[in-house]
Specification:
The protein has 436 residues and is an alpha+beta fold. It is built from 15 helices and 19 strands.
């Protein structure tokens, strides 16, 4: 089988390598030529340099389907972690993608091309390939792994295909990457991944990466224009200095910045069904996009790849495999997007001063948080945290969590300034004020 994969990010390369390893000929096309001696900007991939964590699904799929890529990832410093609730790998997104590119260049059956896909070739009602930089590339199956902005299927229909579920999430973030100085131990952590802190009106995330690298992210409601000032370097640094755990990590005596302050672009929680054009299947962020606050993106892509490979291995026709694959995604991926929409909406409302609404079903994050007050919830939450189950697996624990909140318990806030105090701190910075 000749396969054309549009997009050479994690989803496209992992799927392409797995199909190449099964004896198929795969061409993976991306407009980005890959890393160079001067660095790698990864055009068109906003999240490339931003904070990431990698859930168990990523390492599991690589060890099963593409051991050479997993070993290359480990050689670049990626660090597997084990914890009671979650296993994963500590790494920057760039480090993962470098490892995949290195392994892809030596993978039998996988050919990398740099180019732009102008459109699909459709004959007799099915996709027969695509036009790449003006030249037709024939394929028995075309895979759209072009990312969250991917819309090549809509071109075949002649119209834009609407998102089936979701939209703008109401949250925004800024972040920065840093690296611990040689010999310095990591700072305070409350998760094997780093630190997750909730404050009155905002959130901070600190993700530990490989070889002492780490990312600091500050998340706010998009409806809060005053916290938008955090995009200024001086305001961001002032905020980090005011939040004790971040002050510990970003103390110049302990770490050095390795990037500018980065602004997370339009954050969306979106689910899209397959276009169901014979000969075309969509995977990765082109199916499901979620905000980075829960680190689900690459994990969901790996779950999709594993399911698609299983369908093909079991004899599904490549021309029509999008149908059963769409049914699988509807059952196993869409619930995670719906979960994110509910969580982010509730978080935004609480950051704006609302209390938990006990008149409606509790969202998954609130049920999982209540394990701190009622350990009986823990068995229901384990699969949710690791994404080995579904959000619905938490529902039997909802009455237990509801009783916790009805007694007045609320998830404890991290040590640090409130939203109003943080605004006062950053507004005192002259450069931040000049940029208003």
């Amino acid at each position: 089988m000749q396969v054309l994969v549009v997009g050479s990010g994690p989803a496209g390369l992992i799927l392409g390598a797995a199909l190449g390893g099964r004896g198929h000929h795969v061409i993976s096309v991306d407009r980005d030529p890959g890393p160079s001696p001067d660095g790698w900007r990864r055009r068109g991939v906003m999240q490339f340099a931003h904070a990431h964590n990698f859930r168990p699904q990523v390492g599991k799929l690589l060890t099963q389907e593409w051991r050479a890529a997993y070993d290359a990832w480990m050689r670049l410093g990626a660090t597997p972690i084990d914890g009671p609730a979650m296993r994963g790998v500590l790494s920057r997104r760039e480090t993962l993608e470098r490892a995949l590119r290195q392994a892809a260049e030596r993978q039998a059956g996988l050919e990398l091309r740099t180019g732009h896909v102008d459109g699909l070739v459709v004959e007799d009602g099915r996709v027969r390939g695509a036009v790449v930089d003006g030249t037709t590339v024939d394929a028995d199956l075309v895979v759209d792994a072009s990312g969250r902005a991917g819309r090549i299927g809509s071109r075949a229909h002649g119209e834009r295909i609407a998102d089936q579920l979701g939209g703008d999430c109401g949250l925004a973030y800024v972040d920065r990457t840093c690296r611990l100085r040689e010999g310095v131990e990591p700072g305070s952590m409350n998760t094997p991944l780093g630190f997750i802190g909730e404050f009155t009106g905002y959130q901070c995330l600190l993700f530990l990466h490989e070889l002492g690298h780490f990312s600091v992210a500050l998340v706010r409601p998009t409806a809060d224009p005053e916290l938008k000032l955090l995009h200024s370097q001086v305001a961001f640094e002032a905020a980090c200095a005011a939040i004790p755990v971040l002050a510990e990590w970003t103390d110049p005596a302990r770490s050095v910045p390795t990037s500018d302050v980065l602004v997370g672009g339009a954050l969306r929680n979106v689910y899209r069904s397959q276009t169901l054009i014979p000969g075309l299947v969509t995977v990765g962020d082109a199916v499901a996009t979620t905000t980075p606050t829960r680190g689900r993106g690459v994990a969901m892509a790996c779950m999709q790849i594993e399911a698609l490979l299983r369908l093909l291995d079991e004899g599904a026709d490549p021309v029509t495999v999008a149908g059963p694959f769409d049914a699988w995604c509807e059952e196993n991926i869409k619930p995670w997007v719906a979960d994110h929409i509910a969580i982010d909406g509730g978080m935004e409302r609480r950051w704006q001063g609302e209390d938990i609404d006990l008149g409606v079903p509790l969202t998954s994050d609130l049920i999982a948080d209540a394990v701190q007050a009622d350990p009986r919830i823990a068995p229901y939450a384990a699969g949710y945290f690791a994404m080995t189950g579904l959000p619905a697996d938490l529902q039997p624990a909802e009455p237990l969590a509801r009783a916790v909140y009805e007694r007045g318990w609320r998830p404890p806030l991290a040590d640090g300034p409130t939203r109003d105090e943080l605004v006062e701190i950053i507004q005192r910075q002259p450069v931040a004020m000049a940029g208003r």
